[in-house]
């Protein structure tokens, strides 16, 4: 009898502990790139398509968190939706290099263990974020590049695609335009007239279309991930900030999770994501203060255009950007969500 009572009591204790854990706040934030995204360049059809995909991404990540999944799994799930869409400069919609190819970069970081994985300059991996995750989980390295990364992806049974998978008409035309102008343009800057690609859903002037996600799970763990095709007309194996831990991506349970989008060279030099975390860690700034300090002051002073999404372990969200717009959205524990595009 006593034994049974003890058993019941200990089971009750287990349940309470589990409940206490699951009462943690969960939250997820995404971005789909920053840049010259203004109402005058937008049509109702374009806006609808972007909003729908961003919402699907939020729901995919939220579904993972809701059923007790980890922030890393949620980040991967949310980014898959964006990588599989032609609207964003990542995965399917990646921009063209100068040579008419695609070179994709991605990274992911675990705020609990400070482990990270990244890949750069890959040409045949359907969902780069998942290979970055494998680098973190299944290798002793942090960053793999080019053919080596592709071989690793193959050995990890990642889905590989033919280069033609990444072909989209609008990105191709953006490259031709960029080559004609003979200057490196960022993402789909190709439309200089504003009229040329009017029929193309994702050409709306200068825009960085990288995608990213930060998430907080019910165990109190933060994670961040970023995936990109880089810059239209890039050459010489150029790699931006997206796969660089501390620049485009950073996560630390003690401070925050950050994913960036913008002119990568500036974000690398300013070590944007880590700088936000460091301001919280060493100066005691709040998430919003730290993110604003780096994106709205430091980057602006240095001439770096773009923005970040950031999340702390209390579920506070910051999404500052110094460009005209940034595709972004968040979803909170109770399922309330919002997708934003312009300065609102
Ligand atoms: N940050 C990316 C890069 O420089 C571009 C982007 O955000 O779209 O590669």
TrEMBL record:
Signal peptide: 1-20
Active-site feature positions: 210
Molecular function terms, GO-annotated: hydrolase activity, acting on carbon-nitrogen (but not peptide) bonds, in linear amides; peptidase activity
Annotated site residue numbers, Cleavage: 209-210
UniProt keyword annotations, A-Z: Autocatalytic cleavage, Hydrolase, Protease, Signal
One Pfam family this sequence matches: Asparaginase_2
Binding, substrate: 238-241, 261-264
InterPro entries: Ntn_hydrolases_N, Peptidase_T2
Domain of life: Bacteria
GO biological process annotation, one example: proteolysis
PANTHER family per record: L-ASPARAGINASE, N(4)-(BETA-N-ACETYLGLUCOSAMINYL)-L-ASPARAGINASE
Name under which the protein is recorded: Isoaspartyl peptidase
Organism the protein comes from: Fibrisoma limi BUZ 3
Taxonomic lineage from the root: Bacteria, Pseudomonadati, Bacteroidota, Cytophagia, Cytophagales
